[in-house]
# Entry
Amino acid sequence: QVQLVESGGGLVQAGDSLKLSCVASGSIYSSSAMGWFRQAPGKEREFVAGIRWGAGNTKYGDSVRGRFTISRIKAEKTLYLVMNSLKPEDTAVYYCGLDRNGYYDISGMDYWGKGTLVTVSS
# Structure
């Protein structure tokens, strides 16, 4: 069993930066993938960024590529998301997810955190 706890959300202005953290408890295998997802009001949850826990390969959604950076510290079981040049359209609840098989399919994620709210004002 894995528990995920996100933190770091808040209210910022357009152009600001923010760093999200996700701390995991339980075993995380090298074959796992962890990712950040977000859900804006009235919209479906979408993929933001992901990382293969073992190798560290990363993947980004089109809307955040070049602005957001995902990373992890394996020894601390912590996942990060550095968000730069934030835009009002980045406003959403950001969730941390883990897939034991290494995929980023939202419907197939094995574990989810409860989310942290990011609000970007214009």
User: Anything to note?
Assistant: The longest strand covers residues 18-25.
